[in-house]
Amino acid sequence: MKNKKLLTMQDLSCVGQCSLTVALPILSANGIETCVLPTAILSNHTMFKSWSYLDLTDEIENIFSHWKNNDFKFDAFLLGYLGKPELIKIAEKCFKEFSADGAKVIIDPVFGDNGKLYPGFDLSYVEEMKKLLKHADVILPNVTEACFLTDTEYKPNYDGYFICRLEEELAKLTDGKIIITGAICGNDIAEYIYGKKKGEILIHERIPQSKHGTGDIFASVFTANYLKGKSAHDSCETAAEFVAECLKTTDSDHFYGVNFERVLKLNN
Ligand code: PXL
After folding, report:
1. Ligand 1 pocket, 143 CB below 6 A?
2. DSSP 75-100
3. Whose CA is nearest to atom 8 of ligand 1?
């Protein structure tokens, strides 16, 4: 994607190594001109014990009017944590008004993990997200999000068959590529790439620690590589390796995220 612009729409958490503060450096370091649409400003992400939340929904109309005036178009979109159902509708409007010809839409639904919704989310958000997925070229839900999106009860001890069923159900919501990320697979972790005739599984080492923001990092590295022309399979592989390196390099007392900066520096 030479000389092309990507727009990433997600929150700006001032502290916490997630969403925009990981997407922007990772995409930029990969040579992708990255524009941002912050959906909200939070003091920090919602895995800390408290946080402030300034909703930017009202400002977005204003931002859009100037983008229209300046004839901005984007060649790709990466969506992450939006926060409110209204913002999903705004994302749809954003694709409609600001897509360049052939623009790619990559959606990481970001609303839950470990069988639960993140604080502040409810089922109305999930319902709106189900509708948005039809615009996607690629979706990157984790297992929890895939369960909510398909009205499937989450179970912690799932197998490959369960994941394949989720993919088949997700395929009713989108014609885009479906990649279920971070699925537990014995002692390893896996990404499942859906294919109507033949799916693919990428199995890799599971680093025995769970940290915040790794899904956002995965989505950013995936997107950068996919837009640079790698296949979905190879983009997943690069993203999974990057996340594993981040986990390995992060001290155990660094509880709120991973030191992706160190890995980014070594790789670029
Ligand atoms: O990493 C996903 C994420 C992004 N942004 C905010 C979050 C979370 C997950 O909890 O709280 C504000």
Report:
1. no
2. EEEEE----SHHHHHHHHHHHHHHEE
3. 45
Amino acid identity of residue 109, one-letter, is P
**Cα angle for residues 155, 108, 101 (degrees, 5° grid):** 145
Ligand 1 proximity of 17 Cβ (cutoff 6 Å): no
Distance 119 CA to ligand 1 centre (A): 9
Find the DSSP H helices in the chain: 20-29, 57-69, 85-98, 123-132, 143-149, 160-170, 214-227, 232-249, 260-267
User: Cα-flanking dihedrals φ and ψ of residue 15, to 5°?
Assistant: -125, 140
CA of 63 to the centre of ligand 1 (A): 23
pLDDT of amino acid 2: 62
Q: What tens digit of pLDDT does each residue of 20-38 get?
A: 999 999 999 999 999 999 9
- Inter-residue contact 142 to 177 (CB < 8 Å): no
CA of 5 to the centre of ligand 1 (A): 24
Q: What is the pTM of this model?
A: 0.97
